[in-house]
Task: structure prediction
Amino acid sequence: MEEKSPYGKQRGGREAAMSVVGRLKPIHFTMALMLLVALAMTVGNKEFLSLYNITTIVTFGAILLIVALGQMFPILIGGIDLSVGGTVSFISVIFVFLIHRFGYWSYPICLATGLGIGYVNGIILTRVKIPSFIATLGTGGIVTSLAYLVSPRPISAPPDEYGFFDVVNGSLLGITNVFVLGFVTFILLLAFVRFTHVGRNIYFVGSNIRMAWMSGTDIVKTRNVAFMLCGVCAALTGIIISSVRYGGDPVVGTSYVLNSVAAVVVGGTAMTGGVGGVLNVLFGTLFLSLLDNGMNVVGIDQYLQQAILGAMVIFGVAVSFDRTKIPIVK
Result:
């Protein structure tokens, strides 16, 4: 069958199919991939969809979701935050030390520290005029070094302080607090981007920074807020990881740099900015959690897993990249 073009010409079946695919949103590709991965992993191991394994996927997916939601904001304004790994590691270590001195006050102190790191990233971008890739690469190295200076090796909290970690390790009505924290973070940030002036400005700046400036948008404030939110989410992730492990690790955040970016772009948030959002990150995180857990359950080699993850990042960028912002070279 051939489809008639509105211009009077005939379009072949291949062109028509490509047109249909082109109208699909990136998030639809992610949902389709989730179904394919779940099916493939179930064939490889029937225990993949067991209640225990699903609980594991959701719990650890909630941790990735939080840091990925933070990473989403710099990407939405057309930037990136490579310091999230260092921030997670640094907070992971100092949280254990602060618990001993300040008890429950360690939670707001660590969140404020993450906020401060994000603010520094924003200032370097907006005031010093250094691209976010370079700025956050530098600050990430600094906070990673600080983590090593605080503790060059993993540390454990003494048993008499375990009670302070129950804020994260406990459960509410049979649901783990880690999942609750991930859900609450998701809802709060969803409300922020949809119903607040600053949240909408983040999209405006990412879509067209020149037009946003001409319309009176405070570019500096918007960019700073984006990186500050990223810093807070990275700090919360560090707190959760330390609480789950009852200890800190100066390298625990290393994997979250690539994983957070992957969760954002695979879900359909464009690296060029202004396209995507919280729901995209949710589905991107669920997909990566399914993939990561499934590869371990099935028994795929760890080194090969990184290659698969890298391929997913390439795919995510391919389907979400806004090519209209790239000059045409003839």
Q: What stands out?
A: DSSP finds 14 helices and six strands in the chain. Residues 219-245 form the longest helix (27 residues). The chain has one domain: 26-321.
